[in-house]
Specification:
Elements lengths: L2 H4 L9 E4 L3 H15 L5 E4 L2 H10 L6 H4 L4 E5 L2 E2 L5 E2 L6 H9 L4 E6 L12 E6 L4 H10 L3 E4 L15 E6 L6 H9 L4 E4 L1 E2 L5 E6 L2 E6 L4
Parallel strand pairs: 1-2, 1-3, 3-6, 6-12
Antiparallel strand pairs: 4-5, 5-11, 7-9, 7-10, 8-9, 12-13
């Protein structure tokens, strides 16, 4: 049983489910689609256009976030997970919608391979930040002042990468973060930044897949 299938343990009949974006989330959506075909009654809220297309293809009933309101659970992937279950997300480009849907859910379940576990956030050296196009010059300058190395994300033909929200992404080179909370506050103070890939204090459980072994880690209540 992979992490995507293990995440089905968190899903109950009649629930409203946030559907994440990326490889791990896709495995969950596919497993959920199989369960829906077998009779499970759920309704999903996708975090990206591509997840929406996949869910429709699999026959998962969908709602908009406005229609759904509060969700029971959101299942998504991550690019880094630290020992506190804090996250960096956004390598796939859906970070702002993912954060909005995650914040709308009573429980956030994250699926990762063991290679995504890090001792400190920033260990992989990249933090995606979504920016309003008009704000790119200011955001780039301010990020450099904070010691980041912001690089404008492009698609394979060299054109600007555009999020489902119509914004750009700056992939910021960063060192491992000693104080992610303070860094997040500094980033959010920059006009034009819509959201960052730092997901702090949000994950309730992380399902870690290591070969044939799957482990569930839960956030310790403080």
């Amino acid at each position: 049983m992979g992490a995507g299938e293990r995440a089905l343990d968190f899903i109950e009949d009649g629930q409203l489910v946030g559907l994440g974006t990326g490889r791990a989330a896709t495995a969950f959506v596919q497993a959920l689609g199989d369960r829906v075909k077998a009779g499970l009654r759920v309704r999903g809220v996708p975090t990206s256009d591509r997840t929406e297309a996949l869910a429709r293809q699999l026959g998962i009933p969908l709602l908009t976030l406005a229609e759904a309101g509060t969700l029971d659970v959101c299942v998504d992937g991550a690019d880094e997970v630290d020992p506190n279950l804090d996250l960096i997300k956004g390598y796939g480009g859906a970070l702002v919608r993912e954060k909005i849907v995650a914040a709308s859910a009573r429980m956030l379940v994250i699926l990762v391979g063991v290679e995504k576990l890090v001792p400190k956030l920033g260990a992989r050296g990249k933090l995606p930040i979504e920016v309003v196009p008009f704000g790119l010059p200011l955001a780039t300058r301010r990020l450099r002042e904070l010691g980041c190395d912001p690089r404008l994300r492009q698609v394979s033909d060299g054109a600007l990468y555009v999020t489902d929200n119509g914004n750009a992404i700056l992939d910021c080179g960063i060192p491992p973060l000693d104080d992610p909370g303070r860094f997040e506050r500094e980033l959010q103070a920059i006009p034009g930044i819509v959201g960052t890939g730092l997901f702090l204090g949000m994950a309730h459980a992380v399902i870690v897949e290591d070969g044939d072994r799957v482990e569930v880690r839960r956030r310790v209540a403080t």
